[in-house]
Amino acid sequence: MTDNESVADHYSHGELLPAIEKALAELGKKPHQLSIEDLAPVDEFHIGGRAATQNLLDQLGFGSARQLLDVGCGLGGAARFVADSLGCYVSGIDLTPEYIETGRSLCEWVGLQDRVSLQQGSALAMPFADESFDGGYMLHVGMNIDDKAQLFREIFRVLRAGAAFGVYDVMRIDAGELVYPVPWANDDSISRLAKPAQYRQALSEAGFDIGAENNRRDFAIDFFARLRQRIAAGGGPPALGLHTLLKESTQAKVNNMIDNIAAGYIAPVELIVKKPTAGDDH
Question: Would the pTM of this model clear 0.85, i.e. be above it?
């Protein structure tokens, strides 16, 4: 099995759309009568969910951008939020066929199928023409991609000059033996963590100008503390949430990730970069 197949297999659920429909029914909600907020607990599969997406978006200044790229889009939750918030078009790509199929249904449920396009494929060889996008982002994607140099070369290729791009990945911060499973890997066979400095090098070599870098460790610890409080106060997890994706492995994966972050081994980190224009100084 190739790395791509192993990663897609790791994220595959098997009955994801029916599981989401069942959870929504328990909440008294029906498909085609939903808002993107109704889906937020399940379709933003990264630390901090919607709040983290908004934080990254606030720094990117997409403004009048019309065509944006979501690399490793998962179910397309962030893509739908961005398209709805900015009134733009978003193209997402992800390795996992089930995520794309489910995400397309969710787009139809909230009436965004004309502004959000999701397709299955590899971020290392995207089916987009050169200079197709005004900007883009990736949320918790690089942890499964070994060749980050090719990843950022490919992203650089499809962005227009002057485009901003945001990275929000779990990165390796300090040496130490990670405890598995975690949400992106059951063991180290498909875990491809790298340090912020390695990201910066790959981005710079691809041609990007490097802007802000933000370690979001404290945000992550606070997010999970609040999540645990809500679950305890509610007598258990809500009908729709991360457990809808991860099933019975949810608690172990999340607890291990929290422990790894608390130990200082890993942290979610933001990087804001730009594809320079012809007149930019280097």
Answer: yes
Contact 59, 270 (CB under 8 A): yes
Question: In which residue are the tokens 């965004």 written?
Answer: 112
| Total count of domains within the chain | 1
The angle that helices 148-158 and 196-206 make with each other, rounded to 10 degrees, is: 40
Q: Which tens digit of pLDDT belongs to each residue from 173-211? A: 999 999 999 999 999 999 999 999 999 999 999 999 999
Maximum Cα–Cα distance across the chain: 58
The structure tokens listed for 88 are 């733009």
Please indicate, yes or no, if residue 281 is contained in any of the structural domains.
Answer: no
Check which CATH number belongs to the domain holding 135 and give it: 3.40.50.150
Residue 183, domain extent: 3-274
In 3-state terms, what secondary structure has residue 255? helix
Task: List, in order, residues 6 or more apart from 52 with CB less than 8 Å away.
Answer: 44, 46, 139, 168, 216, 219, 223, 268
Residue 53 and residue 74: Cα distance in Å, rounded? Answer: 13
pLDDT band of residue 281 (cuts 50, 70, 90) is low
DSSP-derived secondary structure letter, 55: H
